[in-house]
Amino acid sequence: MPFIPRRRKDGQDEHPADEPREQAAADEAAAVPPVEAAGQTTDTELDLPDDEPQAAAATTGDSWGFDDPAGEVEVAQEAEAEVQPGTVSVVREESPVDPDDEYAWHTGVRHPTGMPDAVEFVETHKAFGRNRILRGLNMGLPEGMISMILGPSGTGKSVCIKHMVGLLYPDDGDILVHGESVPSMPLDTLLAMRRKFGVLFQDGALFGSMNILDNVAFPLRQHTDKSEDEVLSIVNRRMDEVGLADAWDKFPNELSGGMRKRAGFARALVLDPSIVLFDEPDSGLDPVRTALLGELIMEIHAEMMEEGKQKRLEHLPAFTLITHDIMTARRVAQYINVLWKGRIVEAGPAEQLFNSDNAFVNQFLAGASRGPLGMN
Question: Which of 135, 137, 166, 111 is nearest to 277 (CA)?
Fold first, then answer.
């Protein structure tokens, strides 16, 4: 069939060859909407389709993998600076780190608190066979504060506790307690140093054959020369503080998980330690009892702080919680160390960490699924 050109309204013949060029010009014109003011670009102006979330992510910051990325503000500011009147600027987010560098997010930044460190790790290395746990760890736990060591499972949090009390020694580096090197201590000095610590283990670590009173009194009877009346006075005071004054004659198997935790807490306090360590105190507890235990930790720390100031103690009490529970961190922490792959990612006062612009810290403290930390 011979080709018959179509007639346009202006009287000119319309050829199919013109259609792609005209359509492309129309599409290009439609794709560039007018900009109302210099430097202003909105999702509406860009006319982003609802069925293309990847395009929307470039303006909302979702591609970073966390809900409210600190970097979003910087990207928006850069976009605003680049937009000229009558134009649309396309901003492409680029990863600020080398994806092949496993320590790319480890800034090692330690924001100051103005307090001396009760415990300090200095370039600490520890390996078990080929498994390197601590890899040049630099970390401080300040006096007079409730600190937290937060991080994914298997990053060496509990190993840190054993190094603090001299149950493990580093392959290289040092651990200082009130300025004294733990690995360099002779045995008698080490034993005396351990009395500075109180430790609440994950399950309370109570003796099943002893009632609660005898469990709490055990450190006093083993490590002091106090009379039985003095021992009972201290035990009753600590048990009353943790709400177990009426449970002195019960055995561990008669108590709930929360009560066992509190009994372990009371036992950790009877020697009046200046440093108290909590190894995952929220483990095995429901959210309500976890919150109540957190309140108890804060109350007792405040009481010990007041007592320490009144007595002008050389070292104010330092509480340290080893956990990966973010709700506990939000309620309790005054200072946070974020530990990953045996090193500190970032450390500082809790408020600063919860507003960090570090993508890993942001992801972990937000409990987000997308970000540098994956399932591996």
Answer: 166
Cβ atoms of 116 and 86 closer than 8 Å: no
Beta carbons of 265 and 242 less than 8 angstroms apart: yes
pLDDT of residue 215: 93
Q: Which residue has the tokens 């100031």?
A: 309
Q: Which residue(s) pair with 200 in the sheet?
A: 278
Q: Which CATH class is domain 109-196+273-366?
A: alpha beta
Cα R_g (the chain), whole angstroms: 30
Span 280-300, pLDDT tens digits: 888 878 888 888 889 999 999
* All structural domains of the chain with their residue ranges: 109-196+273-366
| CA distance linking residue 110 with residue 216, whole number of Å | 37
> Which residue type occupies 145?
M
Which structure tokens are listed for 269?
């306090």
Helices 228-241/257-269 angle, 10° precision: 130
Hey, what are 328's tokens? Answer: 């506990």
For the segment 170-194, what is each residue's pLDDT rounded down to a tens digit? Answer: 999 999 999 999 999 999 999 999 9
Lowest-confidence region among 59-73, 159-173, 279-293, 322-336: 59-73
Q: In terms of DSSP bridges, do strands 275-279 and 172-177 run parallel, antiparallel, or are they unpaired? A: unpaired
Total residue length of the chain = 376
β-bridge mates for residue 132, sequence order: 127
